[in-house]
Design goal:
This is EpsG family protein. Keywords: Membrane, Transmembrane, Transmembrane helix. InterPro entries: EpsG-like. With about 350 residues, this protein is an all-alpha fold. The protein has one domain. It has 16 helices and no strands. It is globular.
Length: about 350
C-alpha cells in the first residue's frame, strides 16, 4: 500500500507542475485520480491499517452477537443492507470511500482554482488518516468542508442541519457546530488580535488543566471518551500527543505565515477568512485538550482538514508559481513521511 500511495503522490506532484499546460485534460485527470483513490480505499487489504479488522468484525457480527457499543445509525443501516447480500466488508469500505473522497474533491473544486495542488496536500495525510482508516470521520470531514461555503454565505441554518445530520454518520460532527459562530468577514483589528491569540491561548488552557470533558454524563461523546481514556491508562490503547510535536509546530508556523498575507489572500480567495479562522480553532484545540489526547486529536484533525486548502493558497504568496508549488510539495512530503509508515498512525488513536 505504501508503494501505491507513493506512486499516486509522485503522479499528482508532476501534474501540479504541468497544470497550466494540460488544461484540456485537467477535469478528466482529476476525475480519474478520484476514481483511483476511491478504488484503493474501498479494496485495501484488511489488517493493513489500524481499524479495518475492527470494522470487518463489527460488520460481520454486530447483528449476530449484539453489543452494547454505541455505533452510529448510518453504519448500522448500511451494514444491515449490505449484509443481506454479502459479508465482504470491502463493500462497506467502498461506500464510505465514495462519499468521503467525492465530497472532499467537490469542496476542492469549489474553493480552489487549482486541480492538483489540493490533491497533493490531501493524499499526503488526510486521505490516509480519514479515508483509509477513520472512514466515518472521513465522510464527516468531507461534509464539513462542503458546509464552510454555506457558512461563509451566511446560510447557517442549512449548515447547522447538515452538520447535525452528519452526526448519524459520526458523532464527532457535533464537535464542529461551534464553527457556525464564525463568519467570512475580512479580519478587522479585533478579530486579528483574537485569532492571533487563539493558539497561545490553547497552551494556556492545557497548562491550566481540566477534567470536565471526561465526565461520562456528557451526551453522545462523554462515555466514549471516558472509555478511550480508560483504555489508554490501562495500556490497551496507545495514544501519544506532544503539544510541541514538530508537525504541529510546522502547522502553527504555516498558519502565521498565511496570516501575514491575510489581506492579499482574502482578495484572491473568497473563503480564505473562514478557512483561516477554522484552522486557528483546530490548532488551538490540539494543545487545549492535550490532557485528553483522544479528544485533542479528533477535534484538531477535523477542524484542520481546512489546511488542505490553506496550504494550496500558499502558491499566491510567491511571484513564481513553480516556487510556490515546490514549497507546498516539501510540506506534503513531510506529511507523507508521517503517514506512510504503518499509515503513520502508530502515535495516534487506533480506534474509530
Amino acid at each position: 500500500m505504501g508503494y501505491i500511495l507513493l506512486a499516486l503522490f509522485l503522479i499528482i506532484a508532476i501534474l501540479c507542475y504541468l497544470e497550466d499546460y494540460i488544461r484540456k485534460y485537467q477535469k478528466s485527470l482529476f476525475f480519474l485520480i478520484g476514481l483511483v483513490l476511491i478504488f484503493v480505499a474501498g479494496f485495501r487489504e484488511i489488517g493493513l491499517d489500524p481499524d479495518s479488522e475492527n470494522y470487518e468484525y463489527t460488520f460481520q457480527n454486530y447483528f449476530k452477537n449484539g453489543t452494547d457499543e454505541m455505533i452510529e445509525p448510518s453504519f448500522l443501516l448500511i451494514s444491515y443492507i449490505l449484509g443481506l447480500f454479502t459479508d465482504n466488508v470491502h463493500m462497506l469500505f467502498l461506500i464510505y470511500a465514495i462519499f468521503g473522497v467525492s465530497l472532499k474533491m467537490f469542496a476542492f473544486r469549489k474553493m480552489s482554482e487549482f486541480y492538483f495542488v489540493p490533491l497533493l496536500c490531501y493524499i499526503s495525510f488526510y486521505y490516509v488518516l480519514h479515508d483509509l482508516t477513520q472512514i466515518r470521520a472521513g465522510v464527516v470531514s468531507g461534509i464539513f468542508l462542503c458546509t464552510l461555503p454555506l457558512i461563509a454565505e451566511n446560510k447557517k441554518k442549512i449548515a447547522f442541519f447538515i452538520l447535525l445530520g452528519a452526526s448519524l454518520i459520526h458523532y464527532s460532527s457535533l464537535i464542529l457546530l461551534p464553527v457556525l459562530f464564525l463568519n467570512n468577514k475580512p479580519f478587522c483589528k479585533k478579530t486579528t488580535i483574537l485569532f492571533l491569540c487563539a493558539i497561545p491561548l490553547g497552551y494556556v488552557v492545557y497548562y491550566a488543566g481540566g477534567s470536565i470533558l471526561m465526565n461520562p454524563s456528557l451526551p453522545f461523546i462523554g462515555n466514549k471518551l471516558a472509555i478511550y481514556q480508560a483504555a489508554v491508562e490501562k495500556g490497551k490503547m496507545t495514544v501519544g500527543i506532544n503539544i510541541f510535536d514538530p508537525l504541529h509546530i510546522m502547522s502553527i508556523m504555516l498558519f502565521y505565515y498565511l496570516f501575514l498575507f491575510k489581506d492579499t489572500l482574502t482578495k484572491l480567495c473568497s473563503n480564505f477568512p473562514i478557512l483561516l479562522k477554522t484552522s486557528a480553532i483546530g490548532l488551538s484545540l490540539y494543545s487545549a485538550f492535550a490532557f485528553l489526547p483522544v479528544l485533542a486529536l479528533r477535534t484538531s484533525q477535523l477542524y484542520c482538514i481546512v489546511n488542505i486548502l490553506l496550504y494550496t493558497y500558499i502558491l499566491y504568496t510567491f511571484k513564481q508559481k513553480w516556487i510556490g508549488i515546490s514549497f507546498v510539495l516539501i510540506i506534503s512530503l513531510l506529511l507523507l513521511y508521517v503517514s506512510i509508515p504503518h499509515y503513520g498512525l502508530g502515535m495516534m488513536i487506533i480506534l474509530n
